[in-house]
Amino acid sequence: MEILKIYGGKTLKGSIEIGGAKNSAVALVPAAILSDKVVINNVPNISDIEALKKILSYLNVSFENEGDKFIIDSTNLENKPITLEHSKMLRASYYFAGALLGKYKHAEMYFPGGCVIGSRPIDLHFYGFEKLGAKVTNEGDKFIIEASELIGSEINLKFASVGATINILLAAVYAKGKTIIKNAAKEPEVGTVIDFLNSMGAKITGKDTSMLVIEGVSNLSGGNISVIPDRIEAGTYIIAGVMNGDNLKIKNVIPEHFKALTDKLLLMGADIKVYDDYVVASKSENLKPIRIETEVYPGFPTDLQQPMTSLLTMASGKSIIVENIYENRFQNIPYLNKMGANIEVSGRQAIINGPTEFKPGEVITTDLRAGAALILAALCAPGETKIKEVKHVLRGYENIINKLTKIGVKITLEDE
Ligand code: UD1
Questions:
Q1: How much helix, strand and coil, in percent to the nearest 5, is found in the chain?
Q2: Distance CA 12, CA 274 (A)
Q3: N or C: which end of the chain has fewer CB within 10 A?
Q4: How far is 329 from 39, CA to CA, in rounded Å?
Q5: Tens digit of pLDDT for each residue in 32-73?
Q6: Which residues have a Cβ under 8 Å from the Cβ of 334 and sit 6 or more positions away?
Q7: 238 neighbors 260 (Cβ within 8 angstroms)
Q8: Does the Cβ of 275 fall within 6 Å of ligand 1?
Q9: For 2-19+229-415, CATH number?
Q10: What is the pLDDT of residue 232?
């Protein structure tokens, strides 16, 4: 088991290059199998991508990579059940269901893995598949999704789910006629999937809006896309800069994608400057407490809620966070309290009483963004903090050890 050791308290200086977005890349790679040969640029070097590569190999899809450029060739793709082991490797394993259903009208999978941050049902994915004419049945824990043919339909999502929107798109591109997805998710990661599918020959309109229209096609071929910069990785390092930076430069970003964060930081009085494709953040004194509610895009992203909590401990007064998306996304709090924070949780609300100072300690990562929150705390705690179960963080933060080392952090990843 790997353990992260951080010697905190040192000012963060220099620059950090943001990589391709995890949640975009993990959808684009499964989407690739809808075509023959595709190119995906700017793929992040994270363990979730390694997991997807294993699933591609299992499906007899070949891939080569030159650095962050992936060439995926699905000419010899075989439609096989996504095994329990593969399904559990990551949340995004479920995108193979939509893609295989679209291409073969038959897909088999198990309930996907991913962070344990709530019940995370996938009923809306199945609802969409069924509206396209598929039947979803169970064989033990396995889901079998099949259709004699997929027929375009109007699909009204009761919640603007990122996963369901993308999965339905993957199936609907090959459906006969027109599919309309209403209350579709507007996250930038959805838009990138649309661009990618259209580059293969799909006919999808309505990108960045809550209504997507898909005219089914009978063949997709070629295709290329570049993964967008990771807005959550960027947001995490911007928060790090506000907590303990000296003109920390966060480069290669699309600021519009994390405006909900920078708006809140400015409201707190944080010392940040936002440019066209980079942000400069410095340790900020006299931070004001604020209230944050997580929402779908363009609202405040749930994935930045936990990192933001670490910063809010530094504001003078009572800050409030309301987590509207996942019911169990406060697992970082007991550990932040152990490190000196004063946070109370009640249901979906956390009250952060500040200012408090972080002290080093031994803590455990329960999920990806909880891990990011603990790392942020450790960066400010003078002395050595040990963070266990760091595998969660490595799933989603590209080269985090190198990136933090480069900005002056003494950090090591060691075997326990
Ligand atoms: C994706 C992201 C995750 C992010 C989340 C919200 C990936 C791999 N993960 O997760 O990092 O936190 O978007 O921005 O891209 N829901 C249902 N039924 C469904 C699907 C979702 O009730 O069939 C509910 C969920 O329980 C949750 C909410 O919808 O309360 C959001 O889920 P969704 O947008 O689907 O998130 P994911 O795609 O799982």
A1: 35, 25, 40
A2: 18
A3: C
A4: 35
A5: 999 999 999 999 999 999 999 999 999 999 999 999 999 999
A6: none
A7: no
A8: no
A9: 3.65.10.10
A10: 98
Q: Say if CB 278 and CB 250 are below 8 A apart.
A: yes
- The angle subtended at Cα 209 by Cα 306 and Cα 295, nearest 5°, is 20
Task: Please say if 380 is a catalytic residue.
Answer: no
For the chain, the domains span 2-19+229-415, 22-226
- Substitution site in 95, 159, 170 for ligand 1 pocket (most atoms within 8 Å of beta carbon): 159
Q: Cα separation of 97 and 232, whole Å?
A: 26
Task: Tell me how far apart the alpha carbons of residues 72 and 99 are, in angstroms, rounded to a whole number.
Answer: 14
* pLDDT at site 117: 76
Residue nearest to atom 15 of ligand 1 (CA): 23
Comparing CA positions, the residue from 107, 100, 98 lying closest to residue 77 is 100
Q: Which residues of 57-72 are buried (b: 16+ CB within 10 A; e: fewer)?
A: ebbebebeeeebebeb
Sheet containing 362-364: order of strands = 362-364, 383-388, 2-8, 410-415
> What pLDDT was estimated at residue 171?
98
Low-confidence ranges of the chain (pLDDT < 50): none
- Ligand 1, from 26, 46, 162, 304: best to mutate by most atoms within 8 Å of Cβ? 162
Q: Is 162 in the pocket of ligand 1 (CB under 6 A)?
A: yes
Q: Where are the extended beta strands (E) located within 157-277? A: 178-182, 203-205, 211-215, 224-226, 248-251, 271-274
Looking at residue 273, what is its pLDDT? Answer: 98
The fold of 22-226 is UDP-n-acetylglucosamine1-carboxyvinyl-transferase; Chain (3.65.10)
Tokens of 270: 């944080």
CA neighbours closer than 13 Å in the CB half-sphere of residue 366: 14
- Tally the residues of the chain: 416
Q: What is the pLDDT of residue 120?
A: 87
pLDDT value at residue 1? 81
Q: What is the pLDDT of residue 372?
A: 98
- 354, 288 Cβ separation under 8 angstroms: no
Which pLDDT does position 368 carry in this prediction? 95
